[in-house]
Amino acid sequence: MTDLAAVKAALKTQAVETPSWAYGNSGTRFKVFAQQGVPRTPQEKIEDAAKVHEFTGAAPTVALHIPWDRVDDYAALAAHAEGLGVRLGAINSNTFQDDDYKLGSICHPDAAVRRKAVDHLLECVDVMDATGSRDLKLWFADGTNYPGQDDIRARQDRLAEALAEVYGRLGDDQRMLLEYKFFEPAFYSTDVPDWGTAYAHCLKLGPKAQVVVDTGHHAPGTNIEFIVASLLREDKLGGFDFNSRFYADDDLMAGAADPFQLFRIMYEVVRGGGFTPEVAFMLDQCHNIEAKIPAIIRSVMNVQEATAKALLVDRDALAAAQASGDVLAANAVLMDAFDTDVRPLLAEVRGELGLDADPMGAYRRSGWAEKITAARVGGQQAGWGA
């Protein structure tokens, strides 16, 4: 039997980090549609993130993206966040937008370009020092489009050399989270294309290097929960970038495309001892046609629902069915948990935390959308590249 009190206690500790860039104008590679009330500054992004936490109680940190969130005084930005009831989270680097990076960044054949890229990563660690952030999140667009374009092994050597320099700069309480992506924008070879490559580099670097799993960065049919289980087994799962995909890296709301997959992932997290602050739950999404803040609130709620269902799995019954080889009974244990309507349970949890049982309704009634639409007029809206 599942201990409901323990499930509720676990849910009260859940934290889902939201990304600053999701509050700005972003979307598909085809077109980005501007919306009213979109933040113009990092400070306004944090204000919106604070509203998500206010209504969900589960989004206490907001990730920054450098240079999109560059400011003159990061300590002041951290103080601004704390004054709103949230903290600054992971610092995300950007080595994919400058023209210099056309042939790669830290894997580029030109040493001068590699130096520029590494210097940027070191700058991000400086930002971590100023904000008190624990995690440096790294994703590289590096790769090649054509056979023979560059030496594949040499690019791995350059990657290892750059990562080692940045790793050496990390403080005692700081971590490097290395993300992988099997294609895009490179189509022939990608320098960090899969969890095995990321794991191999992190293993060589040491305990402060961990792998981050973006749920949209996999080929169709990939068993992501197997990857999660394997990384947890090796103590190398540092965090998630939650989003949904139908085709490729769609960056849709977490749990929107395949809620059963999100449940299966969260079950492996719970079963593998990953439901701790050492595994960062982060969103990495682009809200192009839907309103930003409600979409992020919905995403946080979807992660909470998948987690609640994972916590409700009768693990004793599952283990017994597995040990006896009863395939259907084992599957039924998982399906019973997945089919449970956990919304009343989560409403109870929110009530016990002093929150509105309906975060979406509470946000609509708050008038925040109308307030920012009226106030954020003029200036340059934040978005990709700004």
Description:
There is one protein chain. The chain has 386 residues and is of the alpha/beta class. The protein has 14 helices and 10 strands. The chain has helices at residues 4-12, 42-56, 74-83, 111-131, 152-169, 195-205, 224-233, 259-271, 292-311, 315-324, 327-338, 343-352, 359-366, 368-375, and strands spanning 16-19, 61-65, 87-92, 135-138, 143-144, 175-179, 189-190, 209-214, 237-242, 280-283. An 8-stranded parallel beta barrel has the order 1-2-3-4-6-8-9-10, surrounded by 6 helices. The chain has a two-stranded antiparallel sheet with strand order 5-7. Helix 1 (4-12) runs antiparallel to helix 9 (292-311) and helix 7 (224-233) packs parallel to helix 8 (259-271). It starts with a helix and ends in an 11-residue tail after the last helix. The model has no long low-confidence stretch (mean pLDDT 96).
